[in-house]
Amino acid sequence: MKPKNMVCAFVLIISTMVVNAERGDYFDALVTLERNMLNGNSYVKKRLQEMSQHQKKFTRLEKDFYQLLQAHHDYLSSNLEACKERLKPLIKKTNSIDIKAKANILLATADHVLGNHVESFIALDKAVKAVPNLTRQRYKASILQTAVGIYQQAELFEFALELARNLQVEATKLKHGEYLCIANYELGVIEQRTNQIKMAKQRLMLAVEHCKNNNSKIFEYVSTIALNEIKTNSGEYEASNQELKKILEPVNAIGWKNLMTQLNIAIAKNYVGMEDYHQAEKYARVAYNRATEGKDRRRLQIATEVLAHIYSSNGNKEKAIEYYKKFAELNSENKIKVRERKIAFDIARRVSQ
């Protein structure tokens, strides 16, 4: 063996020994909790409280990991400022490249929702650049998927498509079902937004299949919603709602307000199509409330538009005017945000260079 190769091998052995030493008695339990983060906020809160009793015995890596999970729970509970307050010191102090990258993408997401777009893109860029060097494969998929979503909302479809394809290549190479689930979902949504409906439908059907086979519930549900939105746009309102209502209970159990908003909007739109305005209002109102609680301005805009249409159709002119005004304000605000995100993206790229 050449001296250079011997040194590299020696460094790899030493680094592996250090990582294994840092993975103390609680690391596997923290990994299990992380994989169940979307099983409902009450479950996660209970498990985090149980784990907190052992913090004195945690290794440094386990302490950082625990803080990351706490921040993720804050995010899923829509406590975005609390999420950021945990992440900023964690990013500075952790020696784990995996935790730093995952913390950066979570920070990027929180800042994105809060409208801090330059900060969001800077954190996103740091996370994406770290992906090739990560040791935890799940984090590679998670970071790429989140970045794709943020690029999509900024209408930076070229960058979103590039990362989604990278994710699919990585998933195919590893024959990793969960990654294939996520990659097909992201590609399907991009194709749906760019009016490649036939391709989007095939892609989303593949996503649902991969997600179900790999117990990736959150992406199974968002893929199901996206797939049934295609049915809605084809006038298949009843068939769409039959499928959407099957996931209503498990989505509510997860407790993520943004996902609940998305599902209730989709159901409300089908009832509008069937001209059942009583049921449409019921689900649109839930969507409006969850979007407000989750500070999701983009989906709040959609919910107000649906409510305005409902009240206009059932003759409630006063409420129709009220919600059309709200919709107009949010629509204007969100268009400005898209422009701001594109400008922020350019600024962030210059800062990161």
UniProtKB/TrEMBL annotation:
The main location is: cytoplasm
Q: What cellular-component terms does GO give this entry?
A: cytoplasm
The entry's localization annotation reads:
Cytoplasm
Q: Which residues, if any, are the signal sequence?
A: 1-21
Q: Does the keyword Repeat apply?
A: yes
Q: Where does the record place its TPR repeats? A: 301-334
Listed InterPro entries: Bac_ResReg_Asp_Phosphatase, TPR-like_helical_dom_sf, TPR_rpt
- The keyword Kinase belongs to this UniProt entry's keyword annotation: no
Recite the UniProt keywords alphabetically. Cytoplasm, Repeat, Signal, TPR repeat
**Domain of life from the UniProt record:** Bacteria
Q: Give the similarity note.
A: Belongs to the Rap family.
Q: What is this protein called?
A: Uncharacterized protein
Please report the organism this UniProt entry assigns to the protein: Kangiella geojedonensis
